[in-house]
Amino acid sequence: MPRAQGSAVPLADAGGARRAQLIEMTIDSLAEVGYVESTLTRIGRRAGVSAGLIAHYFQDKDGLLEATFRSLVARLGVRMRARLRQAHTPRGRVQAIIDANLAAEEFDRRTGTAWLAFWGQVPHVERLRRVQRVYQRRMLSNLRHGLRSLLDAEEADSLAAMIAAMIDGVWLRAALSNWTEADSESARALLATFVDFRLKPQNAPVLAPAWSLARQRVADGVVISINPATGKELARLPVAGPAEVDAAVARAVEAQRAWAARTGAERGRILRRAADLLRTHNERLAVLETRDTGKPIQETRVVDVASGADCFEYYAGLAAGIAGEYLDLGREAFGYTRREPLGVVAGIGAWNYPLQIACWKSAPALACGNAMIFKPAELTPLTAVELQALLHEAGLPEGLFQVVQGYSDTGRLLTRHAQIRKVSLTGEVGTGKAVMADAAATLKTVTLELGGKSPLIIFDDADLENAVSGAMLGNFYSAGEVCSNGTRVFVQRALLPHFLERLQQRVQVMRIGDPMRADTQVGSLISAEHLDKVMGYIARGRAEGARLLIGGVRVVDGDLANGNFVAPTVFTECHDDMAIVREEIFGPVMTVLVFDDEQEVIERANATQFGLAAGVFTRELTRAHRVIARLEAGTCWINQYNVTPIELPFGGVKLSGLGRENGRAAIDHYTQLKSVYVAMGDVASPY
Ligand code: NDP
Fold first, then answer.
1. What digits encode the pLDDT tens for the residues 360-396?
2. Which pick of 6, 11, 297, 490 has the fewest CB atoms within 10 Å?
3. Sign of the alpha-carbon torsion through 664, 667, 668, 672
4. Which residues line the pocket of ligand 1, CB cutoff 6 A?
């Protein structure tokens, strides 16, 4: 083979490298200026070569674009084959195809925009149409192949066509929404839920999918609260549209001025009364919360309302002490800062701890002199309304805490409202990104309490009983619907057999049942849709080769078939790259991973995009602090898990959020500083 003078690179390889470089430049150009503007001259300029050289390799623009399109399709094919090789079951193979097509790389703005440019040209350019046909045929035949061992041929072909259409549709919607509507993770979860739903055995109890119900609710202009444990309707509340939100903001603006003019001590007195009233009504509120969320009454009686009351009590005490500082600027001047309220702020809540979230947001906001408009999650609208009534009973003037009901559209009205100065959201990462993007238009500040996949590290010197308790609390409390759950349980090798044995013994006697019974320890998941998601992840765990130690089933004994109950589930023999280990499931699903040494476990614990919480169980004092210092998480526990006293700030790092709730730290997020310079002498003027 001829070699270039003075070069060790074979000519053919050099040509291949040049072709690859030009293809990359074409992707860049498509992402930046689109199909029409991506001319040979422009791409050549970008690559530092002449248009003639590009023509030498690809003939013309169509040739270059076809090669680029082929290259995108080929890369996808390589990734898909790699994933298919790792899948060991028919369901796993279907998931591999979904995961490859909706991988993070395909949601990357650069690659995604290039794909979009091609899809737009396919109807007009025969050469691209050929590539497109190859892509479609390959996806369909892979899907059919996976499904034909699960269904008869006709059903398999029909489901394969649906999945292919959904993959393209979900991706396209995300692309057209400029990547705000869905990310890779949520798109894959959606598809997994859909496939599992379709593959569910005929004799499995059928529940109306929550999304169809949600549509109906939107159409009716109401939020319908449903008891997830029984499927029975609890209440209907009107959705707040633009007019209602504007009116609420106007009332809040008016009320906030007078509220901010009061002293902190006066505000604190009202908040203190609210804390007392919450405690007085503990039982009634706990029952309502259990009905609305499906959580066991034994939890809501001691945590949900009590945590809200503690929060009001804490900020009632701090209110009088909220202050700026004095600064000595020498003999001629001094300075001081005033810590002032922001004005009207919005709170948007998730469905897992509705009352607690409403309290955690409103108590510091009100203590600082703000007014708050709060939107609970559509699935759990009830207890925030009760909080509003109790606050009025405590003496809070009208307009300072108002609840608006609705779906994400109502949330968006708040995040985009020009007179709302801040949004505090508890929700998913995708929602956090959308809220932050919307808030940018009016430069609101945001506090974001988002999702997690937190590590719980158990060293082999740990107290076994405490470590097992911590892992159970950090995975199964509230049926696992807790953002800070330690769902990646890393156990040091020598302790693993003892840990698993004890865990299994204790999990198998947990009581699943009617949430209203005082002895029930595991209640219902929030909705049929969420149940499908959680069961989908359990199926994926099996398909990925994790070993099911216990649980893994939906519980449908007697009346429980009307609800969304899942047995506490433990997977062992998990690997860091499994979906059940990487993605937030938000259900009672623990994954156990084994580790050997400290350095290794820290690196693996940090290898996630989330950073909400972390826990360490060990008897070695110095190791506990050394490890905690290196973990990338906002909230950590040593020899304990998921305890959240109001005094301690709570929040996440990385994709788990921004800002902090609770503690003195929250005061910073609900106030702004005004700096004042005070001259004590004459103005020295050169004029
Ligand atoms: P979502 O993100 O789906 O919803 C949260 C709230 O945001 C809901 O009120 C929702 O309204 C609203 N919303 C949705 N989209 C928008 C939008 N574009 N603009 C404004 N508001 C919007 O979360 P979930 O309710 O499903 O809660 C589960 C998630 O919350 C999990 O990821 C969990 O980890 C996280 N979480 C985090 C906590 C933390 O402190 N870090 C604590 C608890 C939960 P609607 O419901 O009507 O759609």
1. 999 999 999 999 999 999 999 999 999 999 999 999 9
2. 6
3. negative
4. 348-352, 375, 377-378, 407-408, 411-412, 415, 425-428, 431, 434-435, 449-452, 483, 584, 586, 612, 652, 657
Q: Which atom of ligand 1 is nearest to the CA of 530?
A: 26
SS3 readout for 601-626: HHHHHHCCCCCCEEEEECCCHHHHHH
Q: Tell me which of 428, 449, 529, 544 is the catalytic residue.
A: 449
Helices 11-37 and 51-58: angle between axes, nearest 10 degrees? 110
Question: C-alpha distances in angstroms, 474 versus 477, 480, 565, 586, 658?
Answer: 7, 8, 18, 11, 22
Measured over the CA atoms of residue 107, residue 111, residue 113 and residue 118, the dihedral's sign is negative
- Identified catalytic residue from 61, 295, 361, 444: 361
What would the mean pLDDT of 451-477 be, rounded to a whole number? 98
Active-site residue, selected from the candidate residues 311, 368, 483, 574: 483
In angstroms, the CA 682 to CA 687 distance is 14
Residue nearest ligand 1's atom 8 by CA? 377
- Judge whether 311 counts as a catalytic residue: no
**pLDDT of amino acid 486:** 98
Confidence of residue 201 (pLDDT cuts 50, 70, 90): low
Residue 529: active-site member: no
CA distances from 428 to 34, 100, 104, 450, 583 (A): 32, 23, 17, 5, 12
State the DSSP H helix or E strand holding residue 77, giving kind and residue range, or none if neither: helix 61-86
397-435 pLDDT per residue, tens:
999 999 999 999 999 999 999 999 999 999 999 999 999
Name the pLDDT band for 88 (thresholds 50, 70, 90): low
Residue pair 528/226 in contact by the 8 Å Cβ criterion = no
